[in-house]
Design a protein that fits this description.
The protein has 16 helices and 11 strands. By secondary structure, the protein is an alpha+beta fold. Strands 2-3-9-6-8-7 form a 6-stranded mixed β-barrel, surrounded by 4 helices. A hairpin with a 6-residue loop joins strand 2 and strand 3. The chain is elongated, with a radius of gyration of 33 Å.
């Protein structure tokens, strides 16, 4: 007898003889779960798409890992550090750098404080896509005609109204300090602009690039580094290698992953994604409330049938199972339809770019990006299905509380 719970639940839920309001509420519940599930899959996929776009933009310039001194702004790259790094096979490229702020001056233009990063051009180019982002000139930081090269970001070049081939002067804080203590005029380093690059303004401050030896002279840090950028064989192993480096290097150094380098931005994007998830779950919650109403009305309508089932041997547990199954069926149908619709919309947007971005001519993509993550899909389907089953618990409990004698007497 208990094995017939499936048949009874399906007949109660989809029987054509029931009052129209019950069936209407049931269909509304299924439609609500369907729409909510589809929207959640689509919206989370859009957030994932934007996350991947921003991540790819930042990783065109950010390394997988970065090592910096925890005690000072600069450190010496000695044999101990080199031996530690050589122990880790996941490391593909090491790119030391020197970084600091300097005053950039141009004849006839206004001065501006900029971030200067000294790099090994060959090593840097092996993990960064700066060549792809070049809007003018080329990545040539060598010394020519007595002038080392510099690569400017487009915003800085536009603000200063300078072009490839012009000369600029850089003065560091250390240079200013020497000028004050030695009672002499500040000695600025002159550079020739060899090119400009365009990195869509996701990062806060534009960086200008010079050769690492020129940067060491500029900041008066001979043979010292600000940090080491690391590119891995597999980008996904960043956290694993970070833990290894922290253990081997100790507290004297700080190791950051690509996520840590832009943590505020990535955290905000994740917060927006899951905020949208919980807000859109309200749609599913409204559908769940309809399930409570529709199943409660089924219990009232089928009170005599429930009494008869109890009188022929059905236990309270069996009666509860019948109505819990109804909530399960509503959730299952809604999740299957909503999941199929959501997946279809995500595929169509990714394949045909149905919904365009407003003002896309000023951005690197023309339509809303989508990226389907299966864990997100399973989370949406699981949460929707769980809410539907939970919503059916009260009507199921109410049905199991009906006594056979009371049900027949009331009839």
């Amino acid at each position: 007898m208990p094995g017939s719970s499936h048949l009874i639940a399906s007949r109660y839920l989809f029987s054509r003889k029931g009052i129209s309001l019950v069936s209407t509420l049931t269909y509304i519940s299924i439609a609500g779960v369907t729409i909510g599930t589809a929207l959640l899959i689509v919206v989370l996929s859009v957030f994932n798409g934007f996350f991947d776009v921003i991540k790819s933009m930042l990783l065109s310039n950010d390394p997988d890992l970065r090592i910096e001194s925890a005690e000072d702004r600069h450190f010496i790259f000695d044999d101990n550090i080199e031996s530690v790094l050589n122990q880790i096979p996941e490391i593909a490229i090491l790119s030391p750098y020197v970084q600091g702020k300097a005053l950039l001056a141009h004849r006839g233009g206004r001065d501006q404080v900029v971030v200067v990063k000294g790099i090994h051009p060959e090593r840097f180019a092996r993990y960064a896509d700066l060549d792809v982002l070049l809007s003018d000139g080329k990545m040539d930081l060598s010394v020519r005609d007595g002038r080392p090269g510099v690569l400017l970001s487009e915003p800085v070049a536009q603000q200063l109204r300078v072009f490839t081939g012009d000369e600029i002067s850089l003065l560091s804080a250390a240079g200013m300090q020497r000028a004050l203590t030695q009672f002499s005029g500040p000695r600025a380093s002159r550079f020739a602009i060899r090119g400009t690059y365009s990195l869509h303004q996701v990062i806060d401050e534009p960086v200008i690039y010079v050769d690492i030896q020129a940067a060491q002279r500029l900041f008066n840090q001979p043979n010292r580094l600000s940090g080491i950028d690391i590119s891995l064989v597999r980008h996904e192993e960043a956290n694993k290698v970070k833990n290894q480096l922290e253990t081997l290097l100790g507290d004297a150094f700080i190791v950051q992953t690509w996520y840590d380098l832009q943590k505020p931005l990535y955290d905000v994007m994740n917060l927006e994604k899951w905020g949208a998830y919980f807000i859109l779950m309200i749609i599913v919650l409204v559908a769940v409330l309809n399930i409570v109403g529709s199943l409660t009305m089924v219990v009232i309508q089928k009170k005599r049938d429930i009494g008869l089932l109890r009188s022929i041997g059905y236990r309270k547990k069996d009666i509860m199972n019948i109505f819990l199954r109804q909530g399960w069926y509503i959730g299952l149908i809604g999740c299957l339809l909503g999941g199929a619709a959501g997946l279809a919309l995500v595929y169509a947007q990714g394949r045909f770019e149905l919904v365009k971005l407003a003002g896309a001519e000023s951005f690197i993509i023309s339509a809303y990006p989508v990226q389907l993550y299966w864990p997100d899909v399973f989370l949406v389907l699981g949460a929707s299905l769980t809410l539907c089953v939970l919503a059916s618990w009260y009507p199921a409990w109410r049905a199991s509380s009906i006594q056979p004698a009371d049900a027949v007497r009331n009839e």
